[in-house]
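User: Predict the structure for this protein chain, please.
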Amino acid sequence: RPPPAAAGSGPVGPGGGRGYAPPAERKRFYQNVSISQGEGGFEINLDHRKLKTPQGKLFTVPSEALAIAVATEWDSQKDTIKFYTMHLTTLCNTALDNPTQRNKMQLIRAAVKFLETDTVCYRVEEPAALAELQRNEWDPVVAWAEKRYNVAIGSSTSILGPNIPASTKETFVSHLASYNMWALQGIEYVITQLKSLILSMGLIDRHITVEKAVLLSRLEEEYQIQRWGSVEWAHDYDLCELRARTAAGTLFVHLCSESLTVKHKLLQD
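Assistant: Here is the predicted structure, written as structure tokens:
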């Protein structure tokens, strides 16, 4: 019997577009996982069968490193396949099937639109301790982004948020246009996890770590937890899940970007 299409919980776009709903767990039906190079790129083999996407397309990825990472996800499954843990597989499916049918510019515009509601741009005035924490933790990241991209961003305590200049948005549009369609799917995925374009670009540009980016995206929640406590297992689970998804999305972006492009971006830091 042919293997089912690999799925998993798909990324949710700013416009509400969703990839794939998570399927039920199922028993592992294969013994060995391998990769091979085909005409369209690198393929994943489960025993002697080719992996397919949910829409029935041949599962083909553009780089050997990404193929190895996806194969590792499948090989690490035990007796039961837990599709919801296979974030790289899910992102590849989304890139291949493009269930929301968006083109490159639509992906870019959706990512840049997050600037209007970016987590690190919305500030509180009370309580004073939280306001100070936001200034201390978020201001340096905003300042880095303004210098890195030569833009004005700012912040606001108004419910309407900051007034982001049109020139800033266009600068980010131009920057994101340097990424390919696969990488853009990963960037949007990271943005939806962190609710922040600024934190996402800081992470992808290797200015901050995954742990730091996640902590900054949950700053108010962590402040409330430190003050009032939490349901320990639930907090730890949510934190680990967010770190895993954010790390997978960031890795996906780098594995989908050409090495020369990545090196060029890093040299600009």
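The chain is about 50% helix and 5% strand.
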